[in-house]
Amino acid sequence: MSSHVVVIAADLRRTTIKVAPGTYLTDVLQEACQKLKLPSDKYLLRHKQKQVDLSVPYRTSGLIPGAKLELVQKANTPSAIQVALQLPQPEAKEVPGGRLIQKFPSDLTLWKVLRQFESGKASGGRNINITARGVAQMSGAAGTGSGQLYYETPVLNIMGREFSTFTDFQKTLSQLGYNSGNVLIRLSYKTTTQTLYEAMEQIGQFFKEAEEVRTEPAEAPAGDKQPEPTPAEPSPDTAMTDLQPEPPEEPRPQDAPSASQEPGSSTAASETVANGDVPGEGDPYKPVNVFLAPSGTTPAAALAPVSETDFEPTAAHAQLHQARLQEYSKNKRLLSDKELEEKAAAEEAKIAAVKSVLVRVRFPDNTSSEWEVGPSETGGFLYEAVRHVMASPGQPFRLALPVGRTVIKDDSGPTHNLIKGYKLSGRVLVNLLWDDSVPADVRKRPFLKANIASQGQAVKVPDVPKDAGEDTNEPPPQQPKKDDKSGGGGGGGKKMPKWLKLGKK
């Protein structure tokens, strides 16, 4: 059953658009702007002084047949959209919840959103291949012939609509009707009949031409400006890989040169470790503390005496639990864009205020070492510091945080900064995990070098004061006092009426 709506422009021109129950309102906007000869990316629809959600179909929009929609001009500043990308299996197993969540401007294309999810901050340091996947297949129909890598294109499902072509990927979030709020994108893959090499050439050419078309209208009015130098123009590879310029890397202090800046520093460090030399006092890779493995099989904290009263809930615990239940039962509104920006700014200011972090790395043999890192240290620095104390520095390993099993990458780039990138603060525990290729005899050897292990100290478990758990038991002795006040005998409490004193005359 078809119907229609009337779209009215600001100059009182109007046009009638036929709609079906499954017609999306963003398509209504584009068709109306095409008939009125207006750019669809600069207008929104409004019905009875309320903005219309362009991302929903007509049957769920609440509009009646013949509804009059007004064309209003969109703000020049793009709004922030929170995008959640639902990954398919088995990639979803490596991500908590199976989703990558990040905020993007509403004028960003779907292709750039995917590129940002591949290697941006949203992926948590993981390198996820979405736009350049290949599947090995035989060229013959019966599984014979030479093998080829065929392109596996991403398929995006947004509110029941599928986008899988390069033309679809050039649509922005705003063109799909998302100008505020959240959007969920379900990702899947489909194997095409195009080879991976041909697809990469087409991607570079297609998105280069698309970028030129998008930038020509913006550069046409500014004819009096001086043209930018030729090296600044994007190349086909730049259009595909470098969607966002990386910030300049912060200079490292002179007393702590990074191993990635000098080609010979890594070789020299490996030679120093192989010779068994202890790092000097001025060496930034020298650990602050070295702890030996426990001598017994039972953890020292489990040997501490425990009282049965430590596990008994007190009145304070019940009151705290009741207060939390009352707090969770209240309805809370979602934060506005301004409040979310203020929250993000406060979090960035909190991270910027961190001057140093004490990182303890726990090794496979239960020994551990601590390093004090500053705001400029990266994951590459921590990996190099670990190699300076391990007995077999040539063996591959990885460093993982206990919460969420986030892996710290061996990279000295600004996106892998320990404080800004991984948001470390205070005292942090990091676990060292051997790579699967490490042989068993290496795993059984002591992890630390002998000179470093000789400086180790035993881990001391702090003594818990005996009266620390007795403070919570003080309120019960006061209970009889309340009973005395409620009785008929007494002091300054409220007395019981005579007619309630049964059995007395």
Task: Please explain how this structure is put together.
- With 505 residues, the protein is of the alpha+beta class.
- It contains twelve helices and 17 strands.
- It has helices at residues 25-36, 110-119, 166-169, 196-219, 236-241, 265-275, 315-328, 337-352, 379-387, 440-444, 450-453, 479-486, and strands spanning 3-8, 14-19, 43-47, 50-51, 68-73, 80-86, 99-105, 133-138, 147-158, 161-163, 182-195, 289-291, 357-362, 368-373, 397-400, 407-408, 427-434.
- The strands form three sheets. Strands 6, 7, 8, 9, 10 and 11 form a six-stranded mixed beta sheet that branches. A six-stranded mixed beta sheet has the order 12-14-13-17-15-16, with helices on one face.
- The protein is extended, with a radius of gyration of 33 Å.
- Mean pLDDT is 76; it is low at 216-280 and 468-491.
Average pLDDT metric:
76
Judging from the principal axes of the Cα atoms, what is the shape?
Answer: extended
What is the correct CATH architecture of the largest domain?
Roll
Question: Would you give the CATH topology of the largest domain?
Answer: Ubiquitin-like (UB roll)
The CATH top-level class label of the largest domain: Alpha Beta
CATH superfamily of the largest domain: Phosphatidylinositol 3-kinase Catalytic Subunit, Chain A, domain 1
Helical proportion, percent range: 10-25%
SSE ordering: EEHEEEEEHEEEHEHHHEHHEEHEEEHHH
Quaternary organization:
single chain
Number of strands: 17
The description of the largest β-sheet is: 6 strands, mixed
User: Distance between termini?
Assistant: 87 Å
**Rg for CA atoms:** 33 Å
Structural class: alpha+beta
Give the count of helical stretches: 12
Strand fraction equals 15-25%
Number of structurally distinct domains: 3
Query: Uncertain spans, ≥5 residues at pLDDT below 50?
Result: 216-280, 468-491
Organism: Hapsidospora chrysogenum (strain ATCC 11550 / CBS 779.69 / DSM 880 / IAM 14645 / JCM 23072 / IMI 49137)
Biased composition (Polar residues): 257-273
Pfam families: TUG-UBL1 (PF11470)
Protein name: Tether containing UBX domain for-like protein
